[in-house]
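--- STAGE predict ---
source: upstream dedup step, 1 unique chain passed
mode: sequence only
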Amino acid sequence: MPTTKQRRQSARRRLDRQLARRAVAARRRRRRTSVGATLAAVLVVVGLGYLIVSKVAGGGASPPAAQASSSPTPSAGPTAAPIPAVTFAKASHAPRKTTGACRYAETAQTLQSTYTKDAGMPPDPAHTPATGTEPMTLETSQGTITVAMDRAKAPCTVQSFEFLTGEKFFDGTRCHRLTTSPTLSVLQCGDPSGTGQGGPTYQIKDEGLTGATYKRGTMAMANGGPNTNSSQFFLVYKDSRLPPSYTPVGTISSGLDVLDKIGKAGSDDANGQGDGKPILGVTIVSARTATPQ
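--- STAGE serialize ---
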């Protein structure tokens, strides 16, 4: 017959075994929770990547991504860091369209008023110059960048820049996006709201897309899909792989060292994709062309 002391010792051993089993079970539960949370996070990232790539494949990207951003939306190909898409809202009136060669359109999907800077509609003469180059000088807070815009490849886009610079549309605006991925290295500018969603109240048709490439020194248009160019543009500081969906406007003739400095400093890169706001704040102090409209 066990003594009272023996019974107490036996009960204590049973309690110790129960506590040990409970501790093991708790550790297993914590491991399962941690693995589940990690898996959920991975699935969310994969899902977002799928949506981004699908959007680009469907023509809704705006380089930069602007994305757009212009986010303006950054994997291992041209769609790794697309250009940010422009956001639109319903217009309150019938769309207007100019009647000259360029047919600038204030589409029924005008830019949201909170992001829009209304400079009016550019003049659209019957004849738009389509030969030669037009220099555009961007005085930025980080240095001067000059672009030789190509009238032969993008006559209507060049004419639009002449109009917008004449209206001082870009003055005081900030370049809102810098990508530093292996497939896309661009600085995106031209949005008066600094969000990747802004622009003027009209759009420009695509130009010069056949065989378009985006080598170091290229300036091209960000967009929200086919024929939705407005004021957002991107400057390529390293050869970038993109589909020929973004109107090439011209070539940087001076100031690549300024772009290199901005690119080397990197972006705030909140999502870990090499895509965010430039760490070196970049503001366009003034933008001018030789022959403003």
